[in-house]
Amino acid sequence: MNLSLSMWSLHRVSRAEKWSVLDFLAFCSKEGIGSVELLDVFWKDPENEIPQVLEYVRESGITITSYAVGNDLVKSTAEERAEALRVITDGIAVARQLGTSVVRVFSGNLSDAYTFDMALDWIVEGLGDAARVAEQSGITLCLENHGKLAGKGDQVLAILERVNSPALKATFDTGNFLLVDENPLHALEVLLPSIGHVHIKDFEETVDGRYKALSGKAYEGVFAGEGQVHLPVILAKLQEAGYKGACVLEYEGLGDEAEGIRRSIHNFNALVQTL
Question: Is the whole-model pTM more than 0.90?
Fold first, then answer.
């Protein structure tokens, strides 16, 4: 297993220093990081940037393992849901340009207006339409357990089963399950046959953590392998299941993000050596 790096791992420094995607790739080259996940949120002028990115990755040898979009299908109007679908289909087109076959997608955000059951039909309809486009394009959409509306393993599985498309699989975010008060190991048992993409993330419960769970517990991001996620077990089970997709570091800890990335990569590589 090799670890790719999501640009989200540097979201604070990227925003503070107004990094472009090329700046992120230059950081990766300097650090010896050979594969990356890019996100739609970081483009400034994609029409001009994408050709520059393609030239850079060709020259540097960096591989783009996945592309991530930030859609929200839980909207009250058909026009808003159509816009969320457009975010995904635009992402499919960009992924094809970038030479990756995996697009990370979301379902929708929790609000006071809708429960999971109320929003499920909208999510299924939108991801079903997107999956048909993805299948024709040779792309696999991977639904992340992101947020608190559809963040449990059985909720993600319910969406996948309703859509019932080979072009829609799961992005298994190892840390996010804690924010819906689910043991990641339980979620892994639920989703293991459906996983097409993995986010490596670790959290630790703290008094003043920035990330609040449904129960009110507070969590903070920590170096991968040093929190409550049981990464050794997760990686072993993925390997036993023959998982061949990307493992992508999504570091969300405090302090220096570059140092957090370095230590997380070190820990991940050490864990992989024990498998």
Answer: yes
